[in-house]
Amino acid sequence: MTPAWLAFFDGLIAIALVGAGIVCAHFGMTPSIMGFQIFLLGFFVSAVGLIIGIIAILVTWLSKSRRIALSRAVFGTVLSGIVFLPVANVIAHRRGVPPINDITTDVNNPPEFVHAQEELANQGLDMKYDAAKYAAIQQAAPAYKDLTPLKSDMPPDDMFKKVQIIAGGIPSWQITYNDSKTRTLEGVATSQLFRFKDDFVILVEAAPNGAGSIVEMRSKSRDGKGDLGVNYNRIKSFFSLLAGSAQDAGPPQGGSPAS
């Protein structure tokens, strides 16, 4: 088979695999991780197709009598590029993300799950934070250096009410546990494309000096070993919403302005 044909078929196969992976995972035809693996296979096929396609274009370009083969090589290369380039761009922008999938705002005293162990997918699993496995890697990652608990002048009970309101309003989140006494909230976040499910826990505590509150959060993926920064981004995005809401609320009655 000529390079032009190889490029053509590689491009078609890459598109088919990527599409099948997304559709199967999104609509529950396969487990999310299996759909993602099919997607990744399509990505690797596209990388091969891109290389073969470039070679085929160069070879057929030099042969003036093979214009049809040239168009076939170009078409296959374009198809492979459509798959390869966007995924490669995402990977390139997340090179500093460590290969872990359990992220917390405090590796020394992380909030622990209370209800997540009861979730069907988590039964039989140890949901306790594995500091020996994750802590040193997270602390050493430059991309996660700014991940710290959220501090506020708002009283803990008022802050937890904000947590409840904002977390309850995020469409991709399902709240599974809500305890106002311990100011603990748990939930499951579902990704839009592959329908991956991640467990998260949010804990609001009184500040050590008794003035204000501290919000801790932990987010853990159910699948894979790495998360491409998804759990970190989830925590940072939620803290940004929470901080903005606390500021907009102004000084609580009997308290001081939120920081």
Task: Give the biggest beta sheet.
Answer: 6 strands, antiparallel
> Helix amount, in percent?
40-55%
Average pLDDT reading: 90
Principal-axes geometry comes out as elongated
Distance between the termini: 67 Å
Structural class: alpha+beta
| Overall strand count | 6
SSE pattern, N- to C-terminal: HHHEHEHEEEEH
Notes on the structure:
With about 260 residues, the protein is of the alpha+beta class. Helices cover about 50% and strands about 15% of the residues. It has helices at about 5-25, 30-60, 65-95, 130-140, 155-170, 230-250; strands at about 100-105, 150, 175-180, 185-190, 195-205, 215-220. Strand 4 and strand 5 form a beta hairpin. The model is unreliable at about 250-259 (pLDDT under 50).
